[in-house]
Amino acid sequence: MADKTAIFESTQALFCAIADYVGKGKIDSVFDLKKFKTYREFKLKNKFDKIISLAAQRQINTPGVTLKDMENLLTSENSWYESSVLIAKTIIKEITTIDTDFKNIQAPNWSDVFYTRGDAEIMGKIGELFKIANENTKQKVTRSISFSNINKWSPADMYFASKDAKKVIANELTEAKNRKTSYTFTELNDTIATLIEKGDLLPLSLKKTTTSVILDKVNFDRSAEDKKIKSFVFVKTSDWKPYAINKPQTRDLQIFFVPGSKDVIKFRHDPSTPAFKGEFISPKNPEARGGSLGDGPLADIFGVFDKNFGNSFKTNFKAADKDFRERVKKLGPKPNDKKLKAEYDEQRAQLSALYVTNKIFPPIIKWLNADKKRATAFVKTTFQYVTSRSTSSSRFVIAKGG
């Protein structure tokens, strides 16, 4: 069975297809959470049995996720139903603010757009195009870094795509394969942008929400993105102190970079994975992170501004990670007993703090404070990478809590 995230993304594709059928004119009365508090009520009172089945069969493409999977999620956790309704409703009402050529979706009855998640024709082929362009980025000697995964180029969880989009993307992939060593993000991003402007393609990143929804257009206006990032400055780090068992401290390090704001880039070590993570956190949208990166990309970004420190961070983290894993092994297998499991998790978290973050955070803090101008450039680059706003990143739309 697919994981919950995959099912939610597929469920959102389903509700967008239903909203397409309903149309903008009736969307408020049909997608009404006060009137239809649960998925069962939504389906029964709107007499949507046939429409939902048709949408699942003809209008969406979500390999590995069945309608039964979606309905199990929608009925077992009502918040997923609420989020699906709120996002689909907002999209159908406001999609022309993305581009007026999407207006056909607002008309009643199904448009010629299909809603895909994890499919071969759209997401699969776009993934192949990304790999070719990204591989060529690795070969170039620049101050930029290649993407560690497709989400740093575009974190789209699903796509709206017309038949024309399928043809264009297929042709683009054929062309890219014919000149594999020279195909770049410039060509790929131009293709995606043109399809969006024609109303044929919409890359959509989903953030679960149970409140209002806003559609955030990312990388549509490079000058606006640059203006926003230009205002960032390294302000300070959080008051992190080395962890001690008899004097516990917070295990994450936060970097403040927006004067007067609580937006931060947070570094932490997750002892359960285990993995190092850098994340953008904004109190304005506590229901979802704004993106993340691992130790490899972070070392590369450090290396853009200070090659020696980038290499040092990579070496130090590798040693700390190895030490941590060996110490966790000595704890033995994770217990099944609830109380013993909690004790095990606490011990593992302590090992993470003592032998990973205690080792790697002090050099980072020292490096940031040694050169505020360099730290500001580092913060800007890290934010762009984490939030998929690098100059090589694609256009996409985030549907998130307002």
Task: Explain what you see.
By secondary structure, this protein is an alpha+beta fold. 52% of the residues lie in helices and 13% in strands. The chain has helices at 4-22, 27-30, 39-45, 49-59, 67-76, 78-94, 120-139, 163-178, 185-197, 222-230, 295-305, 307-329, 338-370, 372-386; strands at residues 60-61, 113-116, 158-162, 201-206, 213-218, 236-237, 253-256, 264-270, 275-281, 292-293, 396-401. A six-stranded mixed sheet has the order 1-2-3-4-11-5. It is globular, with a radius of gyration of 23 Å.
Short structural description:
The protein is an alpha+beta fold and 402 residues long. The protein is 52% helix and 13% strand.
